[in-house]
Design goal:
- It is a single chain.
- The protein is an alpha+beta fold and about 450 residues long.
- The protein contains 10 helices and 19 strands.
- The protein has helices spanning about 55-65, 65-80, 90-100, 115-125, 150-155, 175-180, 240-250, 270-280, 325-335, 405-425, and strands at about 110, 125-130, 130-135, 140-145, 160-165, 170, 190-195, 200-210, 210-215, 215-220, 225-230, 260, 285-290, 300-305, 315-320, 340-345, 350-355, 365-370, 390.
- The termini are far apart.
Length: about 450
């Protein structure tokens, strides 16, 4: 992987594992199309002319072995004839496909046009909307943070604000429905009814949707020697954002000694983005390997020489919400001895999903690989144990200098620096022994 490369819209997308609700695309799901994208093709049926297109049931019967085709056709036929309401054949097939793929594992899915478009927007790092991260809060929706320079940010919406109504309709704690209501074409308006954080004040805010550029990396200087970088998720823009924040830390703190990389509650995203960040922090070594049935599903990704934080100690914060691509980065840095992990065991999402386009704008998201960390550890349903476990605390992403876990990480960085200094000192002379004279 080269430094600062542009992620191509091919490759393997990594499933999230933990659903972090964003008012970006519905839950933050970042994938890219598979290199082995399926090509739609018409299937010929006896008795039809070459120009005629067979119906979906005829295509199904022609594609399956006779016994399986008869069984499925019998089920579909019974439902069409005897179900209380008339159901279009296309809908029946869509729902059959959805159930079939969903039964494989929790991370595989059949995607309709809207769901596929959501994933493509999430991977690209931009979308049309108002720019807020949200999460369910009882019967309401709570704002986690507004995206910088978004309509929500410019309107003064703050972390902790509660969304009560959208265009006059109560949200009732349904994150997916709220996200759907807040999305829309650029230039259109949406009205939110909010209760201000820490008060009972209720305000009405009218927002004009626009294309929001999502920057998944944020950072700040904690003191003159230590920096903080949070990666909220992984999209195509994450590697460039990360390198930009590292350069800024280097600029404002020439004597930088340690950096805290915060991967808590990072649900994952685009695999190649996590690999690129790991590559920028490693001088060499394996980053991740994949095990699967097809050639594309078997892979090994290595770091190339050159580090953006050479000579700087790193502590990575993880918790139960660190999943998927976040675990790839954490595992690569830990197994290569580049960073120490602090926090709690990670989620354990060790499978890779490829998004395979189908006809008519639909797609399959199916598990194609299981990945291993550089030490060969398969983390599916196991997670990664940190080097230093600490009691779980509520992250304070907007005020990291007040975050208990960040403070513990900085203390560990100071001890690491003191250890480096002791190791670099010359060996003390034995008591009572004079040095030799020339």
């Amino acid at each position: 992987m080269t430094r600062g490369h542009t992620l191509a819209a091919v490759g393997i997308g990594l499933a999230l594992g933990v659903a972090a609700a964003f008012a970006l695309p519905s839950a933050w799901r970042a994938f890219v199309p598979s290199r082995a994208a399926a090509q739609a093709a018409d299937v010929g049926v006896a008795g039809q002319t070459a120009a005629a297109k067979p119906g979906p049931l005829a295509m199904l019967e022609a594609s399956l072995p006779p016994a399986e085709a008869r069984r499925l056709a019998e089920i579909l036929g019974r439902v069409r004839r005897e179900y209380v309401d008339e159901i279009p054949p296309e809908r029946l097939l869509d729902e059959a496909a959805r159930g079939m793929v969903a039964s494989l594992d929790p991370h595989s899915a059949y995607l309709d046009r809207r769901e596929y478009e959501d994933i493509r927007r999430g991977a690209a790092g931009s979308y049309p909307g108002i720019g807020i991260e949200v999460v369910a809060d009882g019967e309401s929706i709570k704002v986690l943070r507004p995206i910088d320079d978004s309509p929500a940010w410019r309107a003064g919406i703050r972390a902790g604000d509660i969304i009560l109504r959208i265009d006059g309709s109560p949200v009732r704690g349904d994150v997916a429905a709220a996200i759907e209501q807040m999305r829309g074409p650029a230039g259109s308006l949406v009205q939110l009814t909010l209760r201000r954080t820490g008060s009972r004040e209720v305000v009405e805010v009218a927002l004009e949707r626009t294309r929001v550029e999502v920057h998944s990396v944020s950072g700040m200087l904690l003191d003159d020697r230590h920096g903080y970088l949070r990666i909220a998720s992984f999209s195509e823009t994450t590697p460039a954002d990360f390198d930009g924040h590292v350069a800024e830390l280097r600029k404002v703190a020439p004597g930088l000694r340690g950096v805290v990389i915060d991967l808590r509650d990072n649900p994952g995203g685009v695999l190649e983005a996590a690999v690129a960040v790991a590559d920028s922090l490693l001088e060499g070594g394996v980053i991740v390997t994949g095990i699967g049935r097809t050639a594309d599903a078997r892979f090994r990704m290595d770091a190339r020489p050159g580090q953006t934080l050479a000579g700087v100690d790193i502590i990575v914060l993880v918790n139960r919400g660190s999943a998927s691509s976040a675990e790839i980065l954490a595992g690569a840095l830990k197994d290569n001895g580049r960073a120490r992990l602090l926090g709690a065991r990670t989620y354990g999402k060790g499978s890779v999903q490829s998004v395979i386009p189908l006809s008519d704008g639909r797609a399959l998201k199916i598990t194609t690989s299981r990945y291993a960390t550089p030490s060969g550890t398969l983390i599916q349903e196991r997670g990664i144990d940190p080097d230093l476990q600490i009691a779980g605390t509520v992250p304070r992403f907007d005020e990291p200098h007040l975050d208990a876990s960040v403070k513990a990480a900085v203390q560990e960085l100071r001890q690491m620096w003191d250890l480096h200094r002791r190791d670099s000192l010359p060996e003390p002379r034995s008591a009572g022994v004079k040095p030799p004279r020339a």
